[in-house]
């Protein structure tokens, strides 16, 4: 079941809050509201929202201070947020100043009046983008290698290990079953080697991209990997420094080759 996403609205206009709440709830979001900076900070810690909508609050300047607090707090700096500024006729009273605007780091910026339904749609798209993760199948016959790779990838917010395979045949079966974005494939494995498995995966699963992982980074293995359809190649000695970049690149259909010293 998909996790219910939580939205915090920070604004001091009750009518605007209620209309926006209704639009967001129609999109199946859980919605909370705060009317000032202190209350917003307490709710961010307590409710742990997935996104903050930063509207207009008084005194003027508190919205920017809340913005700065979010960006300067390490555990919150990646929290997506959308700014909805005051309309032009109220800008001198409660809007963002020119200097604050130049220092703004928001995922989206809107100006009142805005249609709540349109805001809710933009929030939905923004969260879909922010929460999409690259699915990875790890295929290697050594448990210690698989455990190390899983531990490294678990630290990445945009990557999710969806399965492990112990040989080429297992990798092929699980690639067909899970349809991951990326298969991280060892070349030398029992049952079916990684090159043979990659050839079959590329024929059967057009949207699955393969990143080869091997102990031997000679030109012959690089060429063979490319010939069977792999988009990238990483020597095991470079896993810690290049694996994440390789997965991200290959997931987008781009070729990736190791950076040699």
Corresponding CATH architecture of the largest domain: 3-Layer(aba) Sandwich
- Tell me the number of helical segments per DSSP (H or I, 4 or more residues long): 11
Give helix % range. 40-55%
Question: Helix- and strand-based class?
Answer: alpha/beta
CATH-level-4 superfamily name of the largest domain: Response regulator
Distance between the first and last residues' Cα: 46 Å
Description:
This protein is α/β, with parallel strands linked by helices and 261 residues long. The chain folds into 2 domains: 6-131, Response regulator (Rossmann fold, 3-Layer(aba) Sandwich); 134-251, Response regulator (Rossmann fold, 3-Layer(aba) Sandwich). 44% of the residues lie in helices and 20% in strands. The chain has 11 helices and 10 strands. The protein has helices at 14-26, 37-47, 62-72, 91-94, 98-102, 116-131, 143-154, 168-178, 194-204, 219-227, 239-251, and strands spanning 6-10, 30-34, 51-54, 81-85, 108-111, 134-139, 159-165, 182-186, 209-214, 232-235. The strands form 2 sheets. It has a 5-stranded parallel beta sheet, with helices on both faces. Helix 1 (14-26) packs across helix 6. The longest helix has 16 residues, at 116-131. The chain is elongated.
